[in-house]
């Protein structure tokens, strides 16, 4: 049983590392980020090993289960040998010899094979009990679990079953876990969006300027058309790139992507707010999580502020969806 447990743990950790690095490769993590991820996961694995039961613990758990099953619930190694927990090594050895003479398989005599087999197994357990109680280190471990309680076998390992979370607590814990994971995934997704826009702008500049990092000497704008979807882009001499949409220029800026999303954007906040808004919020007031509008320059006429349009939803050639900044539109 112990070998199967250790094998299961080894396979589990291998699978964890495999999935972690597969995840990192899919998101094009840099070598530095991969190393940080590796060290973090390794630290967590080491902590889990430190908190896991030792080989000796598993032996004590298994032997305790067999003794209680054989002698009855509440039986202990001490009660089997008629000893107190304060017994010395000499007293333990003396009690063990006395009990071993009583339970020796030869006492069974001409009984059936099954009875002799049962006697031999009981005698083996008695021998293991004597070894544990005479070893001070193992005795301390046994006494510790005798005081704190023994974990129960749950199919893949020994676990304590004193605390059993109810349905509400379980749902709440899952909600917190899903919310945190969704927020982390959102941060990773935003970072990848930022990189995609930067790479797109670099490719467009290379195409417009003939592979040079220097704009054309005449300072003219260059128009580039994407053959895949027919979208047009204009690369200005200053390096700014515009998407031509419905006769308007929409500035493409990677800085519009918020690479550090707030926790307010995760389901940890959006779900409670949504439930509030469709219930008590209709009476007590709606909670608005939308970001505040960008400040408008005081020199801009008040009429223009009122007629200011919201940025349109634009799909870039690489599949990324952006929203054009209204103040970045220019008539072609």
Automatic annotation (TrEMBL):
Superkingdom classification of source: Eukaryota
Listed PROSITE patterns: DNAJ_2
SUPFAM superfamilies for the chain: Chaperone J-domain
Localization per record: Endomembrane system
Domain J: 76-146
Chain spans, region Disordered: 291-332
Main location: membrane
GO CC terms in record: endomembrane system
One Pfam family per UniProt: DnaJ
InterPro entries tied to this protein: DnaJ_domain (IPR001623), DnaJ_domain_protein (IPR052606), J_dom_sf (IPR036869)
Keywords: Membrane, Signal, Transmembrane, Transmembrane helix
Entry's transmembrane regions: 37-54, 167-186
Stated name of the protein: J domain-containing protein
